[in-house]
Write a structure and sequence with these properties.
heterodimer; A: alpha+beta; Aldehyde Oxidoreductase, domain 3; Aldehyde Oxidoreductase, domain 4; 3 domains; 7-stranded mixed sheet; 6-stranded mixed sheet; 17 helices; 31 strands; globular; B: alpha+beta; Enolase-like, domain 1; 5-stranded antiparallel sheet; 3-stranded parallel sheet; binds flavin-adenine dinucleotide
């Protein structure tokens, strides 16, 4: 019998939809007791290490593993020749090699693998694998990649996808026109848990993989292809995930660990270091965006023209979907009768880019919100007023032609953040350095400090788009344990820190009226849940859990009917499940579930399929491409040291419609964390890439906001109820990341008068350091 | 990897002499990072944390002699009143966890141009005490830094302590980073006013291959203060003199463009920090003088 690694305990959760329920792993995490995937361990396991390309672009000749193989403790060295099945993988286009063959297309691309008795031995042997590289000139400028004479990095050229949106009159003219060009840097998801997992061979040609991921089934399907195994022979179980934010949508070490395990017949663990993690996952696409807005003198948008270029890096990942979002949401949540949007995502030899929280709607929000401020200035109009005047409402049309249904509270959100009382000026005496730009580094006691206020509103799609078959599966089992009814919920959905375990338990607790709900380990023994991305899991997996619970409830009621009589199976007489019992319409206990069920186990599995969407028309970009839209607005108040270019965000205020807050405490957490991640991109988070090489692949120089950078967040959470979704909920996770950063940049512009067309805003963008004329 | 763990200073020096390649480790906040990142793999490690002599400080003539193993937290708590500039710099180092482990000796050992203890040590004319089995020597900190992450320590030497005069006047430290805590300096500046010697001390961090002083700026400002008799009758210093001081500080730097900032920005920021630091220090001096 194979030993299994220790996973997080499955603690019962009690709570109903709408309660603030503490996460079952909260205390474990705070105390350092939570087993993350990097803590996985079994007897006799080997450690894997990865040999990576030191060049952004190079032809790969021979690979000599002899010296590495002869190193102490080494059990295997594998190259692309050892990939048993398909040699490439990819979420949308299988173009990324499991291990590079012929060419390496980015700095840090995996070329070979080593398994050894200890991590040090594996790492040291990895240095001894001799790869014969013929260095090529990397293509690192996305503009250049678009040109016809650029070298083609993949068959079919460098354009991964082009999106065209043609909406309304293409020759519309306007009285007032503003233009702008914007640049967004490459942000990292920076999940605190680096990529890691443990593969255990089953001795019969199959493998069990314990892994921190976002979507078990898509990993499994890709692994089965690459390992040339049937899907039944590749079984995945979710291990403790230390954050994801899109970084775990693509395969990283999954196939590598499985290959090494199958080859050596031993469990193999791979855990990336922080620098390795920077090349081990895709990043947020850097973007260059050119905009032209036309409006009437009284501030109604007439047209928007946008050209959006995203750098997808070396492989496709989810680029094709990201560029679609960047284009669909290019205008922001505004009514715009005419639009011409052209977007490209291209291959380069830069690090591959893909999914990250906000998924294409972040880059364009910087641009459309800067444009709205420019337009307001050109019209001498209040920037919030201009936004309200153009705000989408229920029934407004997207630039894709889709009519937006349900509550569309854009104007309301803007008014709400505007109407929050402004924080007082910072005037403590003696100065409290923690309140100053620069913090305890003592750079100012108030000198040069100016305050600015900025606004932004953004939106994005919830769930998969463009006709993708979006669904989730849930198995719900009701039985009696220790004299009390217990519900077990089993899905393959990935708890990545967002609070999905609690949500599933709350839904089951609500639907079945049972207080003891256990959410089982997510694994591939049950049907797919889809990815923990696109802010979709509460909607889609929540919907599946609800549906399975409804089926269980139906059976409980009909069991009661057949055993006791006098009950209608459809509960039409008002009988329901509550307090571990069937109760009548007036709340009186009809029968306790424990009594009714006895030894009986009721189990139901259901899939939940939200409404189907449609692909964008390739010529016009018109379609009902999205399932649900979610909106948030932010106001930022900043103090800027205008002489040093340092920024203190004094306060963020946000308003967001979440439809229905299933777990209000977790919703607040999403709003906080999302705003902080947005702040990071606005002020400091950037992977700096030069000639294809990452220059700051560590937390020494890739800076994340600290508690002294993140201000208090004043939240207004609206629950307006979407008529189509379970409980009326909306996806919550991404909107906070979209508009928080643009609001901060707007506030810095207001404080300094500088144009600031680039994020992150660096100190030297704020102060003019050009030498004084002598 | 060999692990050497002396329990006395004499033993430590003997071990270093016998294993000159051994990498000393104090708080380990630099050493362990290097090892974890696979940048450096020392053949042996010399653990100094049990050497109590290194954790002590006390008077040494008119100086304070501070053991190389005294942590930032202790400098802030125990010496903040006597070494305000170093304490201010210490407060900006990393996080509480890093300040609890990290030592000034380790900062000197690493000799990073961005080491935050260095500018205040330069500005106060501190002296580094180096020792080996062969004896002890004292070296002005100005002569200690020989290049980026290089210092004047010999293979068989260890840093025993640093010596510094208790502050005779106001001191300041100011550091630019792109986040408001836990950040490596983009550039930094330390300033000391010594009314007894009528001396201005400066130190610049992260803006040259080594930490440096702004010699000409010091002389200039001393001249301005002397000429106006301002040490005795502290009136305000005029803006053009302050601007000139800033320019001279900036001119003393030899910054480069790197991931943390541009050379032009560093020069600009140094000028601003120099002006502001002097403003704060001079205000304090004037307030004290008028009391
Ligand atoms: C998260 C983090 C944040 C940081 N932030 C800052 C910051 O803001 N500012 C800053 O300046 N630094 C910072 N550092 C770097 C580090 O904390 C400092 O350089 C600290 O002073 C090192 O002291 P230590 O005792 O930990 O040195 P160690 O790591 O133990 O040693 C550092 C070097 O000094 C040598 N050494 C130590 N003691 C002696 C001795 N007695 N004799 C001879 N050689 C010796 C070692 O061999 C090694 O080369 C940070 C580090 C981390 C991990």
């Amino acid at each position: 019998m194979t030993e299994h690694p220790r996973l997080a305990p499955r603690t019962p959760v009690t709570g109903r939809v709408g309660d603030s329920v503490q996460r079952p792993d909260a205390v474990l995490k705070v105390k350092g007791d939570f087993p993350y995937s990097s803590d996985l361990q079994v007897e006799g396991m080997l450690w894997g290490a990865t040999v990576r390309s030191p060049h952004p672009y190079a032809r790969i000749g021979s690979i000599d593993a002899s010296e590495a193989l002869a190193s102490p403790g080494v059990r295997a060295v594998l190259t692309h020749e050892d990939v048993p099945g398909r040699k490439v993988y990819g979420l949308e286009i299988p173009d990324q090699p499991v291990l590079a063959f012929d060419v390496a297309r980015y700095w840090g691309e995996a070329v070979a693998l080593v398994a050894a008795d200890s991590p040090e031995e594996a790492r040291r042997a990895a240095h001894k694998v001799q790869v014969d590289y013929q260095v090529l000139v990397p293509l690192t400028d996305p503009e250049l990649a678009l040109t016809p004479d650029a070298p083609s990095l993949h068959e079919g050229g460098n354009v991964t996808r082009q999106v065209r949106i043609r909406h309304g009159d293409q020759n519309a003219r306007a009285e007032v026109v503003v233009t702008g060009e914007y640049e967004i840097g490459m942000q990292d998801q920076a999940p605190l848990g680096p990529e890691s997992g443990l593969a255990i061979p089953d001795g019969q040609g199959g493998v069990d993989l314990y892994i921190a991921t976002q979507w078990l089934h898509i990993d499994r399907d890709q692994l089965a292809e690459c390992l040339a195994l049937s899907r039944e022979k590749v079984r995945l179980t979710l291990a403790g995930v230390g954050g994801a934010f899109g970084a775990r949508e693509d395969l990283s070490m999954q196939a590598h660990a499985c290959m090494l395990a199958l080859r050596t017949g031993r469990p193999v663990k791979i855990a990336y270091s922080r620098p390795e993690s920077f090349v081990g996952h895709v990043h947020r696409h850097p973007g260059r965006l050119r905009y032209e807005h036309g409006a009437t003198r009284d501030g109604k948008l007439v047209y928007v023209k946008a050209r959006i270029l995203l750098d997808g890096g070396a492989y496709a990942s989810s680029s094709t979907a990201v560029i679609a979002n960047a284009c669909c949401f290019a205008v922001g949540p505004y009514e715009c009768p005419n639009a011409t949007i052209d977007g490209w995502v291209v291959y380069t030899n830069n690090p591959p880019c893909g999914a990250m929280r906000g998924f294409g709607s972040v880059q364009n929000c910087y641009a459309h919100e800067a444009q709205m401020d420019k337009l307001a200035a050109a019209l001498s109009m209040d920037p919030v007023e201009l936004r309200i005047r153009n705000a989408m409402k229920t029934g407004s049309s997207m630039v894709t032609g889709q009519v937006v249904e349900g509550p569309v509270p854009v104007a309301d959100l803007l008014r709400r953040v505007r109407d929050v009382a402004l924080p007082p000026a910072t005037t403590s005496d003696p100065v409290d350095l923690t309140e100053m730009p620069g913090g305890v580094s003592n750079t100012t006691h108030g000198e040069g400090v100016k305050r600015g206020v900025g606004y932004a509103v953004g939106f994005k799609n919830i769930g998969y788009s463009e006709g993708f078959n979006d669904y989730s599966t849930a198995r719900v089992r009701l039985s009696v344990v220790g004299g009390r009814p217990r519900v077990e919920v089993h899905t393959a959905s990935a708890e990545v820190g967002q609070g999905l375990v609690t949500v599933q338990a709350q839904i089951a607790g609500t639907e079945l009226g049972v207080s003891d709900v256990v959410v089982l380990d997510a694994d591939t023994a049950v049907g797919s849940a889809g990815s923990s991305s696109a802010s979709r899991q509460t909607y889609v997996t929540g919907g599946a859990v609800k549906a399975a619970c409804e089926a269980v409830r139906e059976r409980v009621l009909s069991l009661a009917q057949s055993e006791m009589g006098g009950l209608s199976a459809d509960a039409g007489d008002g009988r329901r499940l509550e307090n571990d019992a069937i109760v009548s319409a007036d709340g009186a206990v009809v029968v306790h579930l424990a009594t009714l069920l006895g030894e009986e186990v009721i189990e139901e599995t259901r899939e939940f399929h939200p409404r189907r969407t449609a692909p964008l028309d390739p010529e016009t970009g018109q379609a009902d491409a999205h399932l649900q839209y979610a909106f948030a607005a932010h106001r930022a108040v900043v103090d800027v040291d205008t002489e040093l270019g340092l920024v203190k965000v004094v306060e963020l205020a946000t308003a967001q419609d979440v439809g229905k807050a299933i777990n209000p405490q977790a919703v607040e957490g999403q709003l906080e964390g999302g705003a902080a991640q947005g702040l990071g991109l606005a002020l400091m988070e950037e992977i700096q890439v030069k000639d294809g090489v990452i220059r700051n692949a560590s937390f020494t120089d890739y800076l994340l906001p600290t508690i002294l950078d993140m201000p208090p967040l004043r939240m207004q959470i609206l629950e307006l109820g979407d008529p189509h979704s379970p409980y009326g909920l909306k996806g919550v996770g991404e909107p906070p990341t979209i508009s928080s950063g643009p609001a901060i940049v707007a506030a810095i512009r207001a404080a300094t008068g500088r144009p600031l067309s680039r994020a992150p805003v660096r100190p030297h963008d704020i102060v003019d350091t050009s030498p004084l004329p002598s | 990897m060999e692990f050497l763990q002396p329990s006395t200073w004499t033993e430590a020096l003997q071990m270093k002499s016998a294993h000159p390649e051994a990498m000393p480790i104090a708080g380990g906040t630099d050493v362990m990072v290097e090892i974890n990142l696979d940048r450096h793999r020392p053949a042996s490690i010399l653990d100094l944390t049990r050497v109590t002599e290194l954790n002590q400080w006390g008077a040494d003539g008119e100086f304070l002699r501070i053991g190389a193993g005294v942590t930032y937290t202790r400098i802030i708590g125990e010496l903040g009143d006597r070494l305000p500039g170093l304490a201010m710099a210490s407060r900006t180092v990393g996080s509480p966890q890093i300040r609890n482990r990290g030592t000034v000796g380790g900062n000197l050992g690493s000799a990073s141009p961005a080491g935050d203890a260095h500018p205040p040590l330069l500005a106060t004319d501190a002296v580094v005490e180096l020792a080996s089995v062969g004896g002890t020597r004292r070296l002005p900190v100005r002569e200690f830094f020989t290049g980026p992450k290089r210092n004047a320590m010999k293979q068989d030497e260890l840093i025993a302590a640093f010596l510094v005069s208790p502050a005779k006047g106001p001191q300041q430290f100011s550091k630019v980073g792109t986040r408001n805590a836990m950040v490596i300096a983009v550039c930094s500046f330390a300033l000391t006013l010594d009314p007894v010697r009528k001396h201005i001390g400066t130190g610049i961090g992260s803006a040259a291959p080594t930490p440096v002083i702004a010699d000409e700026a010091e002389r200039f400002l001393e001249g301005v203060l002397d000429e106006g008799g301002l040490w005795e009758k502290p009136a305000s210093v005029d803006a053009s003199a302050l601007a000139r001081f800033g320019e001279l500080v900036a001119a003393a730097a030899k910054p480069i463009d790197d991931v943390r900032g541009t050379a032009a920005y560093r020069r600009h920021a140094l000028a601003v920090m120099a002006r502001r630091s002097f403003g704060w220090a001079w205000d304090e001096y004037r307030t004290k003088a008028s009391e």
